[in-house]
Design goal:
globular, eight-stranded parallel β-barrel, two-stranded antiparallel sheet, TIM Barrel, 10 strands, 9 helices
Length: 264
């Protein structure tokens, strides 16, 4: 299982900076955020993504996946074709697409979401780059494994994948064994995220913390991954607070050690 680090948290780092980060943290490569205001973005991905992929490969690292803008929800979006083609050119096999919102009419929303996935499946077939959908808590379709199965049922797992998030599933999902079993044919990527509750003005909110510091049941995750025979990409999301890059590297090393101790 390749371990990669999501670049969302450090948009200022260039290729050399990320190579140093991965080497220092002992990480296999990157979950590359290809978004506006990032070094690789939808406007320059055709050139920059292959260059970054080659630079990482030359350093013994990988781009495990590309994470697109969260509003890229139509295969007809000009950014979608550009990013899928850039991934194909760069040898990146998976891309995380955007989120389908819940409007208040579930059946109609699922029908629309599946229609959108049909477009992404067609794009995936033509480029050889798998379109993956991420479980995000809140008013999103597919916010847990059971809901995601309703979107993915019938789609070819070679072209459409499930991206399960330990933290968001801990908030809005069932036992991880059930969640991962529901989407087992499509299960392609695992996001590592832990969550803790914090209270502000009598309102409880979940915040991201390093793995092992929150309420995710990591032993359950480990057992479910073994039961599924999961060999996909693991993305350390790093969406917690850190005091500079050096501190973030240390936390990544600590997370990696924690995950290995727990059989992940």
């Amino acid at each position: 299982m390749a371990r990669v680090y999501f670049t969302k948290s450090l948009p200022q780092l260039d290729l050399a900076g990320w190579i140093s980060f991965c080497k220092d943290a002992g990480i296999d490569g990157l979950d590359l955020a290809v978004r506006p205001k990032y070094p690789v973005n939808p406007d320059n991905a055709g050139v920059q993504l292959p260059e970054w992929s080659k630079g990482l490969k030359d350093a013994g690292l990988i781009v495990g996946l590309v994470t697109a803008p969260t509003d890229m929800i139509e295969a007809t979006d000009k950014r979608a074709l550009a990013l899928f083609e850039a991934c194909a050119k760069a040898g990146v096999s998976q891309i995380k697409i955007g989120y389908f919102s819940y409007s208040g009419k579930y059946d109609a929303d699922v029908s629309l979401g599946r229609k959108r996935l049909q477009g992404f499946e067609k794009l995936a077939r033509s480029t050889g780059v798998k379109a993956c959908y991420h479980t995000h808590s809140g008013p999103m379709l597919g916010c847990h494994g059971i809901g995601l199965k309703a979107l993915l049922e019938g789609f070819d797992p070679h072209h459409v994948g499930a991206f399960l998030d330990t933290g968001h599933l801990a908030i809005g999902g069932g036992p991880f064994a059930i969640e991962s079993d529901a989407v087992a044919p499509w299960f392609s990527i695992l996001a590592i995220k832990d969550m803790a509750w914090t209270q502000t003005d009598e309102v409880w909110k979940a915040r991201v913390v390093p793995a092992g510091k929150g309420f995710v049941r990591w032993k359950d995750v480990s057992l479910a991954l073994k039961a599924r025979g999961f060999r996909g990409v693991i993305s350390l999301h790093g969406e917690y607070e850190a005091e500079g890059t050096a501190n973030r590297v240390q936390i990544a090393k600590d997370e990696d050690r924690f995950l290995k101790t727990n059989g992940i």
